[in-house]
Amino acid sequence: MIKHPVMLAGIVLFLFAVAGAGLVALVHQQTEARIIANERLALLKQLNALVPAQSIDNDIVSDITTVSAPDRLGAKETQVYLGRKDGKPVAAVFTSIVPDGYSGPIKLLVAVRVDGSLGGVRVISHKETPGLGDKVEERKSDWIYSFDNKSLVNPPSAQWKVKRDGGVFDQFTGATVTPRSIVHAVKNTLIYFRDRGGSLFQKPGT
Amino acid sequence: MATSSYGKLITEGLWSNNQALVALLGLCPLLAVTNTAVNGLGLGIATLVVITLSNATVSIIRNWVRPEVRLPVFVLVIASFVTAVELSMNAWFYELYKILGIFIPLIVTNCAIIGRAEAFASKNSLGRSLVDGVAMGLGFTLALTVLGAMREIIGLGTLFAQADLMFGDIASGMTLRLGDDFKGMLLAILPPGAFIGLGFMIALKNIIDKRLTKTRQAEALPTAGTEPAAG
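Above: the input entities. Below: the structure tokens describing the complete assembly.
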């Protein structure tokens, strides 16, 4: 039976499938812990840039709650990282989505302190035009820092717009849509926090 | 082909049969990730590792894999190595891995790799296949890095930006700036810039090749002329 060429070919193919899967399994096992640690560290670094490590004493990467407010936060489900010190709320970092970017959704991290002011905003991923809309990236320009310490009263709510629309935030030459939509999304996140922020920090079961 | 020396294998991989510039294989990653020199180098090295490993493996198994299942076996071998390289990069070069993203798994579809497995490694000894893999991989890496450097200089006005992602913090000073006034020409880092850049590279290579043949002919002529006189 085994002399049949098709059978023989099948067996060879099978052996290689097993060997290939074995190799991948081995490498996966060797690298898994390191990859998880990398992802965690990268996230922690991003969060600590917005919520300084010394201002909190909890494990902000694991202290997560999920909320649903598509109108304000841009997605059906939004994860919120919670920073606390001595059990008291310090800041909430929203993974808000900007639904109306120039070319597709833009993912943000928006850190809001308990007093309603912004710890800062970062763009996590986007598909905006290189050289124009991508100035919202931290490494391309300082624009994203213009949100630092702002709140719904500073500037007043009516001026939460780009300058072209009569607000206080800069737009870029050749790209108004991107900054406009980000300003709008950050404002929405702040409104959400004003209205519902208190309930975020209640741990289920405590 | 079976008689060509190791030296010839290396020149073929790096120059005369360069997979990117002559065979025009693997254009998808070539055009997509070469917006900076470091990205090009990163993907180039990943491809180099995969093509070397796959060439070696294919060469070792060449005598007992039946011709009917040869191609599926090659694909299996390549896919396994690519996944292994992808996981390793995720573990040890996390930042670079995030930038290259989807293009690492897409190394599987790089025709240059299966092309070398089928056309060379399945017919040659282990040593020769290894050399061929390294040479072809280096040639590909070189093309990617040069194209990346070209686009980075023209498009962003920097060279080797973010080299620290690959070589650690020592390399963070490696970035060259062309001066703060230069804002870069946007076209170069957009997809059309990749096509135009590759076109220029191929043209340049052809010009150099032509020059080389001319000088060789010019050198050959006088000797050819004197030969009959000597005879």
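Note for the figure: Residues 6-219 of chain B form one domain.
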